[in-house]
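Hi R.,

Quick one: here's the Glycosyltransferase sequence you asked about.
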Amino acid sequence: MTIYKEPWRWVHQAVCSLARQSYKNFEVIIIVDNPGYPSIAELQSLLKHLKLTAVIRVNDDNLGLVASLNSALNLVSGQYIARFDSDDECLPDRFDKELRFLRDNNYDFVSSSINLMSENGDIIKSLAFKGSLSTKQVKWIEPRSNPFWHPTWLMRKKVMDELKGYRSLYSVEDFDFVLRALDAKFELGILGEALVNKRIVESSISETGGYRQAVYAHFLINKYRSGELNLQVKLPKINPESEREYLSTLARKKKLERASALKKIGFSISLLSTSSGRLILANIIHQRFSIPAVKILKCLIF
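And here's the predicted structure, written out as tokens:
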């Protein structure tokens, strides 16, 4: 788990959710990627109070998420690695159910479904699957839609060792890791039950960041399908004109959110005329009907 600038109340809730786990045989490794973080003493005191076995490392400088995660991996001594975010909450039986799911099915790397949680801690929506997904199903769905939520990950340590940790690919390092695990023929599975409450923070990804993330993910999918994912990967440059077009179209969408049904239909039709519009329309349909966005895009391109 890494901490950067998360509010102390969120970190407190995250750590307390670890202490409530029904499975007790684990060690917490926390990297504080902010030497000026104001609640380090409170964190140490809380871990002691909860009697959690823990290792805390405070970076001398802000190294970034990927470097911090990779440094945490060097401190792992157990057979399994679980990923968690410092602003989320685990349900009490998360570790127990994920570990049994992994062992019973002989998987190398698993995740669970999630509940979306507001900044205030209210559950907004459950994104649970009706059933669990096998390796074959994950291989089909992952390049089309990414349901492998990183705060729910549990894997055998050999997966992280063989893949040599995370690569420094801004905003898509998790997606890259999952695709590389599939490419390396590891067995992956998704437990249908929601075992983590993931906090949705409005400021975490800007509209510009969301566009770039979508472009980078599409780039990685093409590399995966062409068998070039494990080569030296350099993310593509963002076309400023396409980015402006995307943001302009997104602004129009927000304006028309309360418009009449007829205007909404007209706007939806207009989205088909540009690549950025088709990207937005694909994401809308994906969110509404759970159809993979990449599959939708293929239907929208003509």
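The chain has two domains: 2-199, 242-302.

Cheers,
M.
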